[in-house]
Write a structure and sequence with these properties.
The structure is a single chain. By secondary structure, the protein is an alpha+beta fold. It has one domain: Peptide deformylase (Peptide Deformylase, Alpha-Beta Complex). Helices cover 26% and strands 29% of the residues. The protein has four helices and nine strands, in the order βαββαβββββααβ.
Length: 190
């Protein structure tokens, strides 16, 4: 089922998400719904807080990016994975800038600096433990989704001038003055 994506201004996007266990009810269906929602919105990653669930869960499919890349020789292959209770162990290397966007903050993009290599501990959908290193665009997408479960939005990582330039657009999103090809849920209270 395609779920509405929570838009900028929703309090759930600013909360540190909770760990879950194998007893979490409806997890398999939730993951399936997250995949469907992400693909419907043309995303490459989606975190549970973006669909209103404050839990440490995100899904990523960077295999889609492989189709768009013309020069793949020095690029890590993409992957499709579920990450549960992820814990960032290390981020290394000289930071690099890349333009990011977010399904919860539509039509806003900005340059974000991040280290190029990460080491992550997480559980898969069968709650099997993994510890892996990722680099390049794969690391970038994980860092972005990991930020979501930490209550951090990519706009908070922008340079001060860019932050000032997008304030009006962010306020329009918060007030629901935007429409997209996918369903957004706006914050209605104060």
């Amino acid at each position: 089922m395609i779920l509405p994506i929570y838009a900028y201004g929703q309090p759930v996007l600013k909360k540190v998400a909770a760990h879950i266990g194998p007893e979490f009810e409806g997890l398999e269906q939730l993951i399936a719904d997250m995949w469907e929602t992400m693909y419907h919105a043309d995303g490459v990653g989606l975190a549970a807080p973006q669909i209103g669930a404050s839990i440490r869960l995100f899904v990523i499919d960077t295999e889609q990016l492989d189709k768009d890349e013309k020069d793949k020789k020095d690029k890590e292959p993409g992957f499709k994975k579920v990450f549960i209770n992820a814990e960032m162990l290390d981020e290394t290397g000289e930071t690099w800038t890349y333009e990011e966007g977010c399904l919860s903050i539509p039509r806003i993009r900005g340059d974000v600096e991040r280290p190029p290599v990460i080491r992550l501990r997480y559980l898969d959908e069968q709650f099997q433990p993994h510890e892996e290193s990722f680099s390049g665009i794969n690391a970038r997408v994980i860092q972005h989704e990991y930020d979501h479960i930490q209550g951090v939005l990519f706009t908070e990582r922008l340079k001060p001038l860019k932050k000032r330039l997008i304030q009006r657009k962010l306020e329009d999103i918060r007030q629901g003055k935007i429409s997209m090809d996918y369903k957004l849920r706006f914050y209605s209270g104060r």
